[in-house]
From TrEMBL:
Involved in lipopolysaccharide (LPS) biosynthesis. Catalyzes the transfer of 3-deoxy-D-manno-octulosonate (Kdo) residue(s) from CMP-Kdo to lipid IV(A), the tetraacyldisaccharide-1,4'-bisphosphate precursor of lipid A. Coiled coil: none annotated. One of its GO terms (cellular component) is plasma membrane. Belongs to the glycosyltransferase group 1 family. Residues 41-217 form the 3-deoxy-D-manno-octulosonic-acid transferase N-terminal domain. Keywords: Cell membrane, Lipopolysaccharide biosynthesis, Membrane, Transferase. The keyword RNA-binding does not apply. It comes from Limnohabitans radicicola. GO terms for molecular function: Kdo transferase activity. This is 3-deoxy-D-manno-octulosonic acid transferase.
Amino acid sequence: MAFMPGLSHTVYNLLVQLAQPLLRRKLARRAVAEPGYAVAVPERFGHYTQPPEASSELVWVHAVSLGESRAAGILIQALREALPGVRILLTHGTATGRAEGQRLLRAGDVQVWQPWDTPAAVQRFLRHFRPRLGLLMETEVWPNLVLQSSAAGVPLALVNARMSDKSLRSALRWASLMRPTYGALAAVWAQTEDDAGRLRALSATVQAVTGNLKFDAQPDAAQCAQAQTWRSGLTRPVLMLASSREGEEAQWLKALRTVPSALQQAQWLIVPRHPQRVEEVEDLLWQAGLTVSRRSSWSAAGPQGTAEVWLGDSLGEMALYYSLADAALLGGSFAPLGGQNLIEASACACPVFMGPHTFNFAEVAQQAEAEGAARRVPDMVQAVEQAVGAVADTVGMQAWRSQALAFTQAHKGAARRVAALVKDLLA
């Protein structure tokens, strides 16, 4: 049965259709810094080199970017345990998400780009791969993706679902489009009761509150062990600016002028959120008169020399960085960007200082603060000042690191719960 669009959906379809040439140009520009964006571009418009599926076997998991792909990895592992032999169709929107997703594939699995959200591209995607059902990670609700799947008889579940106040307000501005879209989801499994309430305000039927999949992540044991070996040879504590976003490194440099002892009392490690910004951040640090050592230049013995700042320029090594650090300043929270996920830091026993902007992870941030895994500060200056003071207290830091680890341990179990719900939905 064809989906009959209303006026707002017709306008939306016109906009996404007209945006296709702009998307192609954007991909070409991004491919200059990240070659992954030049890979298999026709897939984004529903054209594939893989042979079409002969039967409906694939369980489709959509993980748009790096964070969602990591959460998808946790879920996929649980699905393989609950459904031996399951074949996964994995889709992404960003190059970092696709690169992370490649590590999750097994024989028989398929990986392609998310189809651009036009009716034609989504229909071609659904006809080609014939998924049994789809699992959309966290926030990835696109009108045609949902409505065309519903019309094709492919049930979609929003998994590890979250909805901030800001996102709810934005969606309600297009309520006549977004309410039918959320209402067409076959299942919604929210991270928290607050998320569930906001999703219901968009007409989503929330069947369960399952917790956050990211609590079930296990840090890479080899990376943690490597970091502990390197830590044993250090003479100063390590403080990390983790997953920093544009403008936050400049804030940090400004804070150093207010807390001039910060460079003497701790070794600083900066890990930009987006790898394409590493060169820019390194230039900024050198221009500020600081010496820099990049992770890619380190030997097996770890960082050498007397560089004032270590710069994390590798992908997939956050467990190494968090395990090397005594405490972290949470990127994305010092500029009005909504913060980054702090669960991975806590899982590595790395406590966190959060700035004022954590609206993308509001509940987790509140939980972490309430349970002693994180501390809230008003700005970067206070973060640097308090972090330097905290690492000077060896006994207090040990207790805080234990609290951070306990925080993640107390909230595990979401992957098992979600896998059971997927199994029921398949049945």
